[in-house]
Amino acid sequence: VSGSRSSKTFKPKKNIPEGSHQYELLKHAEATLGSGNLRQAVMLPEGEDLNEWIAVNTVDFFNQINMLYGTITEFCTEASCPVMSAGPRYEYHWADGTNIKKPIKCSAPKYIDYLMTWVQDLFLSPWKMGVPFPKNFMSVAKTILKRLFRVYAHIYHQHFDSVMRLQEEAHLNTSFKHFIFFVQEFNLIDRRELAPLQELIEKLGSKDR
């Protein structure tokens, strides 16, 4: 519905231009994912640039989380989720360092809207194809992934019943497992940040050993 909250939070898919090297990398990632071995799928392909691999996968995770969250926006409202949380012990406040310098307490839909808009703006500037990566690229990528993790954590803690009703748990679990294996492979998220879903992460990892 035009102008509704959910259409605002559901950002347009970020496409990697066809024919570009990053597009080829994305195709490589999709092909290895199809093999079913997620540990192998996240590894840096031989001879490839680490920054580029992280950029391509970060765009892909942004699109996946965007789609997953887009399916449950009607259940994630100012009333149902007045704070951005992952269970009773973890609450997240928003700051982007430019427009909002001091972290603010906000509802989950508001936080996720801020986050998705912020990530999109980043993709439009330092992540342009064929432009050298900025010196702070890795720290920015880590911040993006840390915050995208919070959306997974919020969905699992607050909306998993809705995900089950929509029969999307397999899709969510596969997406999250891929995400976790990726951030573990390159040590992109501090272990303490992963605490809200630690049990699930251990379960997913043990199945793959």
Short description:
The protein is mainly α. The chain has eight helices and two strands; from the N terminus they run ααααββαααα.
Percent strand: under 5%
Mean pLDDT: 85
Question: Can you tell me the overall shape?
Answer: globular
CATH H-level superfamily title: MOB kinase activator
User: What letter string, H or E per element, gives the SSE order?
Assistant: HHHHEEHHHH
Q: Using the coordinates shown, work out and report the CATH topology.
A: Butyryl-CoA Dehydrogenase, subunit A, domain 3
Class computed from helices, strands and strand pairing: mainly alpha
Largest sheet, in brief, is: 2 strands, antiparallel
Give a structural overview.
This protein is mostly helical. The protein has a single domain (21-206), classed as MOB kinase activator (Butyryl-CoA Dehydrogenase, subunit A, domain 3, Up-down Bundle). 56% of the residues lie in helices and 2% in strands. It has eight helices and two strands. The protein has a two-stranded antiparallel sheet with strand order 1-2. Strand 1 and strand 2 (91-92) form a beta hairpin. Helix 4 packs antiparallel against helix 7 (169-185). The longest helix is centred in the last third of the chain and has 29 residues, at 137-165. The chain is globular and about 50 Å long. Residues 1-10 have low confidence and may be disordered. It holds the Pfam family Mob1_phocein. GO terms for molecular function: kinase activity. It comes from Fulmarus glacialis.
